[in-house]
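It is worth pausing here to work through a concrete case rather than discussing structure prediction in the abstract. The textbook approach is simple: state the sequence, then state the predicted structure, then interpret. We follow exactly that order.
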Amino acid sequence: MQYRKLGRTGIEVSELSFGTWAIGGSWGKTDDTESLKALNRAMDAGVNFFDTADVYGDGHAEQLLAQATKGRNDIYIASKFCRGGDIHDRATYSEDRVRMYCENSLRRLGRDSIDLYQIHCPPSWVIEEGEVFETLDTLQQEGKIRAYGVSVETVDEGLKALEYPGVQALQVIFNIFRQKPLFDLFPKAEAAHVGILARVPLASGLLTGKFTAAQKFEADDHRNFNADGQQFNVGETFAGLPFQVGVELASELVWIQEGRGNMARAALRYILDQPAVTCAIPGFKSTKQVEDNLGAIEVPSYTKSELAKLSEFYQTQVHHQIRGVY
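Step two, the predicted structure:
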């Protein structure tokens, strides 16, 4: 396992880390026993960083992390807040409310401090006005959080967040289907020594190559109930692509797995090959998925010609089909 500096935090995190949305909920059936086994398998392999949020299973993902990491001071945790309330209500970002969210997460995590505390995809005006960062500065000074950042939906939101000196990490949707951050956001984040957490790295499973057009998802899986952005930003599901389109586009990428084992590992390797990226944070629901994703750290990097081919693929075949502002 290789480790990379997370912005200016002083923390070094595993380049392949894991997100816990899937084990919390909204990805179909889960099994807590299997989730805990998978978390332990990841840590045994050198993974030292996990991303979660207070709304993943209404705090259940945080509780699972508390169980798996109890007594381990070598594991870093990032959590997120604001979606436990009305994200469009100014009161959600008040000091009292943010402090409450933080204290609740600390209690569920069984920790005295959160290593990275992130605003969870707020409306653009929250970042533009910036008042919430003053509260985060206070929590940092009190030792409740070690560092803070923003999980954003758009490149413009990320660029705006970079203007605040206290922001030390950005969490963005980035994968072979969502290359826009490469062109402006990543260079500026790298210059500012701000860490990048790449979420939705497998485009909700499209980039595993395992789906067919006939694929069906469970009712409580966001790939069913948010397929067209009915519940939250459409980019969080299939990277904003219509499912059928995504399946077709994925079929044109089978070449990336040559010499890299499978498409999932190849898709993660693409992310890890970007120097501005601190870590990729794929989700998981089983030990097998963790082990498969871990394989990405050992497969060959992309050549310049391969990267150029993927860039052309994105610009000519993908970019215009992604829905929503990003």
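Step three, interpretation. DSSP finds 13 helices and ten strands in the chain. The first strand starts at residue 3 and ends at 5.
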